[in-house]
């Protein structure tokens, strides 16, 4: 194992996704613990740790892509929260999702907005 | 016709997509001229003209989404050029495309990078 | 704002989607009210109001596309009801969904049929 | 082999797709001749031969779905020609493709329109 | 009707999908009974009955595809169970799903693993 | 850098994809050399090097997924060749692609078969 990547990835995952990210890792332990490790090492240890694009832009890019693809609602939820965690405003998140209507249609944009609504409500309640 | 949206959209389309955008509009005239007008009015007159997200972030979000969807290479090309037109660095564009390997797989990320390579080569030649 | 498009779109949305459409608009008010307006103006005010294709054909085309894409179940539900509202028979809807097995596979066709079954049951109960 | 389905499917394939359909069947002979037979039997012998939806509506539904999915340009081309063969007007085809901008985004609608433009040009030249 | 294909398909469906497959057929009876018949005849009577690829490889291929597409969770569930029914080990299934992270991204792989976790838990409980 | 993963991945990439894989790595050097390294390390060093699934099954799973997704023709080509390199028969490859008609529709299966036809022709010519 490459300890550096793992340690760096784990810190980055917690910085971006917080408790929701830790829950994903935990839920993999009894089905595919190696995948939990790979998820920490490659996306977070390798990609998110790179310079050249700040975390706010990275999270908005993920929100854009997952909204447009429309086939991964749980991960969109984690990353809308992640976008908030790294400092994106509600307005920025809503604007990115709305913009996806142009590139992937109104249905996926609507579904993205309803996920954002759920996350923002949880924030207001907390 | 809502002249304000059209005028605002046309200016925005030229600001972002430049000559490539004008070529798309021109190429629609003999098949669906109304769609050319709608393309100017809704994406550019309505969406890109909104406050709350700057054009650099908007273009990186589009590059992310079109890379991830992997089914619209001509438009990805236009928007990688568009990202350059509004001030995104080559590094930012490359980072966003690389990041899509995490969310939509290595094949679409590779194909996105090869489109970027083509655009950057044209810049170097110009 | 272009009042004509909004008024025309709102009437068209109610004609096609009925209460389900109004519910979507209402549910957007606290997250993205501008998107509610754009949804009325562009899809309904601009596109559905165009001549050249009657509403029955338009709704069957949407049912075909949303079934095939398989990533927008709530909107497929609204538009199967919409197809009924504008005069499509149950048989026409079922035939379009079945045909999608050829173009997008049996899983999305099955999932489309189960959405139709739910809508038709609600009709029978009403 | 079920001769009825094959004979019925072959006639239906020629009615809808004409020479382009026959070319597809021919091009499969040296790689997967059984798939050529299955393609005649299931889509054309089983599905297109069903009552309850006329061929014009069936072809517009396919044009809608293939435009929206955006990952099968050769088949979209065959079916835009097929739509013409069974009596769809150019306007109907253009309207269906334009409508897909609402459900699957402007890029796939643009690419669909450019395929239609190519088919209509070939008609004009013939 | 081609009785041979139907009888052969029905036996194959029960061999692969077991009770879950029979439930799908049953649930179609009041909405599209013809589709139930076509589902037995084409996928199971025509395709799964072919020589040249054993059922274990066929089921792993389906698990791969449905994981990657990410838009048909109920069918992925049926086929993970189907893979188990025809002799695939849990490890083989988990490896195929993990591998899809490379080709279609981590979100669809995660969602596939959680479906597998559910199926394996039901086995343990049974 | 984790030299073990890189060395192991590079050997695995050459074993599976041969010259076509090396060409992909080479073509990335002037646009995203880090992505070339990540492509060697994660898919090939981490995933393909895992026990529990032999390379033949892994390559057939990739052929299934890329055929079904239908949005990455260059990579499908590389992996049909890869499947041949690790010992899959032409018949196995054709069967997997044909089977995708059931799960993702006839158009993507047809396009996959035509890619296989091209690869098999090159083999025959070599």
TrEMBL record, chains A, B, C, D, E, F:
GO terms for molecular function: 4-carboxymuconolactone decarboxylase activity. InterPro entries: 4CMD/NDH-1_regulator, AhpD-like, CMD-like. Pfam families: CMD. It comes from the Bacteria. Transmembrane segments: none annotated. Residues 33-118 form the Carboxymuconolactone decarboxylase-like domain. The keyword Disulfide bond does not apply. Its EC number is 4.1.1.44. Keywords: Lyase. SUPFAM superfamilies: AhpD-like (SSF69118). It is an enzyme of class 4 (lyase). This is 4-carboxymuconolactone decarboxylase. It comes from Rhodoferax ferrireducens.
């Amino acid at each position: 194992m490459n300890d550096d990547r793992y340690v760096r990835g784990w810190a980055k995952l917690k910085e971006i996704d917080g408790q929701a990210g830790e829950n994903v890792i935990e839920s993999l332990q009894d089905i595919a613990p190696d995948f939990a490790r790979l998820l920490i090492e490659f996306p977070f240890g390798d990609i998110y740790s790179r310079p050249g694009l700040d975390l706010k832009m990275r999270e908005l890019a993920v929100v854009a892509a997952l909204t447009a693809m429309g086939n991964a609602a749980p991960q969109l939820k984690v990353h809308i929260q992640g976008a908030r965690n790294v400092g994106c405003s509600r307005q920025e998140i809503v604007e990115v999702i709305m913009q996806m209507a142009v590139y992937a249609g109104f249905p996926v944009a609507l579904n993205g907005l309803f996920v954002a609504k759920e996350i923002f409500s949880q924030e207001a309640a907390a």
